[in-house]
Specification:
Blueprint lengths: L1 E5 L1 E2 L10 H5 L3 E2 L2 H13 L4 E5 L8 H4 L4 H9 L6 E4 L9 H9 L3 E6 L7 H6 L6 H14 L4 E8 L6 H14 L3 E6 L17 H24 L5 E10 L4 E6 L10 E4 L9 E10 L2 E6 L5
């Protein structure tokens, strides 16, 4: 019922901490007709949730068509019968356009969810990462996205302890996380990859400091997540049923706000058997850390 649709391979961004360009080569998009044909085959085989992935999905098509074509591809995918949710991962902040945001706001099949791996917000750290932007520009972008697509779920990933990250840079990152209040966030302590420029940078941060900073970010995010989950109490969510846990005697699945493997789940009780891969309405009654608890909504007569 869920499948990943890889639309490109390789990467041209050449972030200084990442070995993907050296391993997989330059960014290479698949022709749109080939991607759409695969999506049709997946939908015909019973796939209901399609997850569009690449090292940088927002760069899709630039090498083939002279400009990025992610929005056009998503329009084609939305026309495929049988698909219920289409989710996009790994979007690069510099290439998120109003056309893409308007499409997400308009198309029911496009779940209001964007994964934007920002890595940091400090201008100097981003420069050393070979990335653009700063805290002010990233804040403006995220504010704009939320204005264009009300209720959108924003996910990001961050790196703590990158070479040169001093206390001021880390404090700015921690303040940024508390200010933006991401719906989903993963944070990783920097780990040098062999052969990358960053591995040879001066001002390497001690491993324990990297870990401590990561844990501080995740502690703050747990509080934010708990508060955001509490806001869902008493609401009804559409949930994709993924399985049944015989130990706790309840079903589990995901809402549109949750990507598989990286986000939380919805655990809920049901008075009747449910088909795995079906969509149901769940009343949210409680929360636990990153997950939601509830019960199947009664069908209206």
């Amino acid at each position: 019922y869920t499948a990943y649709l890889k639309v490109a391979d390789g990467c041209d961004n050449c972030c200084t901490y990442c070995a993907i360009p050296a391993i997989r080569g330059r960014f290479r998009s698949r022709p749109m007709e080939e991607v759409v044909a695969e999506a049709r085959r997946l939908a015909a085989g019973g796939v209901k949730e399609l997850i569009v992935v690449a090292q940088d999905t927002t760069g899709y098509g630039a090498d083939l068509y002279g400009e990025p074509k992610l929005a056009e591809l998503l329009e084609e995918l939305c026309a495929i019968e049988g698909l219920h949710w289409i989710r996009t991962l790994y979007t690069y902040p510099d290439r998120i356009t109003d056309r893409l945001l308007d499409l997400i706001a308009r198309e029911e099949k496009l779940v209001p969810y964007l994964d934007i791996p920002l890595q940091h917000c400090d201008k100097e750290i981003l420069r050393r990462m070979n990335r653009t932007g700063d805290r002010e520009s990233l804040t403006a972008l995220l504010t704009h996205i939320r204005k264009k697509v009300p209720g959108i779920t924003l996910r990001t990933t961050l790196i703590t302890g990158f070479p040169g990250e001093d206390e001021a840079a880390f404090s700015s990152l921690a303040e940024f996380v508390r200010e933006i209040r991401f719906d989903r966030l993963g944070c990783f302590a920097y780990s040098a990859e062999e052969g990358t420029p960053a591995a040879d940078f001066p001002d390497q941060v001690e491993e324990q400091v990297r870990q401590d900073r990561m844990e501080n970010i995740m502690t703050d995010q747990l509080t934010i997540s708990s508060e955001k989950n509490a806001e869902k109490l008493g609401t009804q969510l559409e949930v994709l049923v993924e399985g049944y846990d015989s130990y706790i005697r309840c079903y589990f699945g995901r809402s549109a706000a949750d990507a598989p493997d990286i986000d939380g789940k919805v655990f809920f009780i049901s008075p009747k058997p449910l088909e795995i891969g079906s969509f149901v309405q769940v009343q949210i009654n409680d929360t636990i850390e990153y997950d939601l608890l509830g019960e199947l909504c009664e069908e209206k007569a």
